Amino acid sequence: MPGIESLTEVLVDELRDLYDAEKRLTKAIPRMAKKAANRTLRAALNNHLKETNRQVRRLEQAFRQLGETPRGKACAGMRGIVEEGDEHTGEEFETDALRDAVIIGSAMRVEHYEMAAYMGAIEHARILGQSGVRSLLQETLAEEQAADKKLQAIGQQVNPAAAEAGMEEEDGGGFGRSRKSGRKTGRRRAAKKR
Fold first, then answer.
1. Which among 103, 97, 100, 101 is positioned nearest to 166, based on CA atoms?
2. Considering the entire predicted model, what is its pTM?
3. How much is the mean pLDDT over the chain?
4. Which end of the chain is less congested by CB atoms within 10 angstroms, N or C?
5. Nearest-CA neighbor of 111 among 21, 16, 41?
């Protein structure tokens, strides 16, 4: 089997990886949105699903501009991130805020993976003089960056509520036991590990 012999082949390979990643996300995002209790988070995820569908179409345009047939190549990185997110969000949570905090973290990992992948592909398109492809990829990168910022803002609302979930303030130290289970909370366990 011949190896990759040109930067154009590298770019096409990156696009195939991204194409598979975006297609996976069209299935994963609705699962996250369904589990989200926070309305703002759910709306942001549903809005990003619409963007993701447009991103898939942009990648198809990029393939055509390069004279290639749009098709994906299994993206092991995104598969792993999605599987990990499904595993974490499928756990039992004492409060909706805790689950939402996990969803935000999982979604941010997705965004950061995508941003890194798009930045690499954009640079390769630039070097190759593929300004049309570069423009399409930059448009998607801007959406991924905006989605990440939106998730950060939502996290600033959700994460403090998640930190307070199940906590009883004792001696002002912020350590406590879960009201429901009597188990030590994560903050105390984390402190013991140090």
1. 97
2. 0.82
3. 87
4. N
5. 21
